[in-house]
Amino acid sequence: MSVLRDIESRIPGTADDGYMTLLNNELENWSAEDRSLFVNESKFALGLYHEYGEKAGDPTLCEQKVMERFAEEEAARKRAGGAH
User: Fold this and answer.
1) Ramachandran angles phi, psi of 68, nearest 5°
2) What is the CB neighbour count within 10 angstroms for residue 41?
3) What count of Cα atoms within 13 Å lies in the side-chain half-sphere of residue 75?
4) By C-alpha distance, which of 48, 38, 46 is closest to 70?
5) How far apart are alpha carbons 66 and 5 in whole angstroms?
6) Distance of alpha carbon 61 from alpha carbon 18, whole angstroms
7) Which of 67, 74, 63 is nearest to 36 (CA)?
8) What is the pLDDT, as a whole number, of residue 82?
9) Average of per-residue pLDDT across 45-59
10) 21-30 — which CB contacts under 8 Å span 24+ positions?
């Protein structure tokens, strides 16, 4: 699982501005390396909309593309113990 999906899976969806507070609270518990990887994976995932349109919103497609792009970083993360 990518750090993007791992972090997002820990945060409940909310229709108000509370999401950013929840996200920031969650990110505080993660290592600097994982936070940086989360930012990079998030940027990449947003860029998928340019290539795939609304299909980029499919969690399975997004996870597949993120894992393909960040395979080396994710492998290093898993070797280091996985997460926060």
Assistant:
1) -65, -45
2) 25
3) 5
4) 38
5) 9
6) 27
7) 74
8) 63
9) 95
10) 29/84, 30/3, 30/83, 30/84
The length of the chain in residues reads 84
Range of 6-10, 74-78, 80-84 with top mean pLDDT: 6-10
Residue 1 CB neighbour total at 10 angstroms: 14
Nearest Cα neighbor of 38 from 62, 58, 8 is 8
Name the burial class of residue 63, with classes exposed (0-12), middle (13-18) and buried (19+) by CB atoms within 10 angstroms of its CB.
middle
Whole-model pTM above 0.90? no
The pair of structure tokens assigned to 20 is 């950013």
Task: At 53, list the tokens.
Answer: 């349109």
What integer pLDDT is reported at residue 18 of this predicted model? Answer: 87
Instruction: Kindly state the helix (H) or strand (E) to which residue 82 belongs, with its residue range.
Output: none
